[in-house]
């Protein structure tokens, strides 16, 4: 019985250590990673309500607008396929939003096939290669950046990162996002 309790105790210590380590990586990456001038700005897909970007997606798009206007990138890739309840793809909704906010159509490149973070980055890399774009800034929510960085590195994207944080959702979606990313990041590490 003592041996079993000791074994369970060791498992609990390992579990807690892994959780704390992963959460530390997620939080520290979100705090310290900064965008660098690049060839392209990649906006990772996020939910669309009908044809309207969700608050999280709108915030990502607004960050892309800011970075583009400040000269951080020459092009913007908007990524994301059409999910349940979405009338158009996330990429198309993002493109329409950017056009309404003064970005020339020739600047906006779209990936409307992707349905996951991996696919967002995989198809964005193909667009970069096709257009001879070498460096990128990847935009997502702060809680999502560490996992995006692991995937981008595996795919071969030379990237810096810019994260958004919606204070009005701090105790709901943002807090949930920082917790949900723990198993997602662990899965991403173990996948290779």
SSE blueprint:
Layout (H helix, E strand, L loop, with lengths): L1 H31 L7 E4 L4 E2 L2 E2 L1 H15 L5 E5 L10 H11 L7 E4 L5 H14 L4 E7 L3 H11 L2 E7 L5 H22 L1
Parallel strand pairs: 1-4, 1-6, 4-5, 6-7
Antiparallel strand pairs: 2-3
Report on the architecture of this protein:
One of its GO terms (cellular component) is plasma membrane. This is DUF218 domain-containing protein. Keywords: Membrane, Transmembrane, Transmembrane helix. InterPro entries: Cell_Envelope_Assoc (IPR051599), DUF218 (IPR003848), Rossmann-like_a/b/a_fold (IPR014729). The chain crosses the membrane at residues 6-27. The protein has 192 residues and is α/β, with parallel strands linked by helices. The chain has a single domain, classed as 3-Layer(aba) Sandwich (Rossmann fold). It contains 6 helices and 7 strands; from the N terminus they run H-E-E-E-H-E-H-E-H-E-H-E-H. The protein has helices at residues 2-32, 55-69, 90-100, 117-130, 145-155, 170-191, and strands spanning 40-43, 48-49, 52-53, 75-79, 108-111, 135-141, 158-164. The strands form 2 sheets. A 5-stranded parallel sheet has the order 5-4-1-6-7. A two-stranded antiparallel ribbon has the order 2-3. Helix 3 links the parallel strand 4 (75-79) and strand 5. Helix 1 (2-32) crosses helix 6, helix 4 packs across helix 5 and helix 5 (145-155) runs parallel beside helix 6 (170-191). The radius of gyration is 18 Å and the shape is elongated. 39% of the residues are buried. The mean pLDDT is 94.
């Amino acid at each position: 019985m003592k041996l079993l309790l000791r074994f369970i105790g060791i498992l609990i210590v390992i579990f807690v250590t892994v959780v704390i380590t992963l959460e530390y990586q997620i939080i520290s990456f979100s705090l310290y990673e900064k965008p660098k001038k690049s060839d392209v700005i990649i906006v990772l897909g996020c939910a669309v309500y009908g044809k309207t970007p969700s608050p999280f997606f709108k915030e990502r798009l607004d960050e892309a607008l800011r970075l583009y206007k400040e000269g951080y990138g020459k092009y913007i890739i908007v990524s994301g396929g059409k999910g349940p309840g979405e009338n158009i793809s996330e990429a198309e909704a993002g493109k329409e939003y950017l056009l309404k906010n003064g970005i020339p159509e020739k600047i906006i490149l779209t990936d409307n096939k992707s349905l996951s973070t991996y696919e967002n980055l995989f198809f964005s890399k193909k667009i970069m290669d096709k257009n001879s774009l070498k460096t990128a800034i990847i935009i997502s929510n702060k809680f999502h950046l560490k996992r995006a960085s692991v995937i981008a590195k595996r795919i071969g994207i030379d990237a810096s990162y810019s994260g958004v944080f919606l204070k009005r959702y701090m105790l709901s979606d943002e807090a949930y996002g920082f917790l949900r990313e723990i198993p997602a990041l662990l899965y991403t590490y173990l996948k290779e």
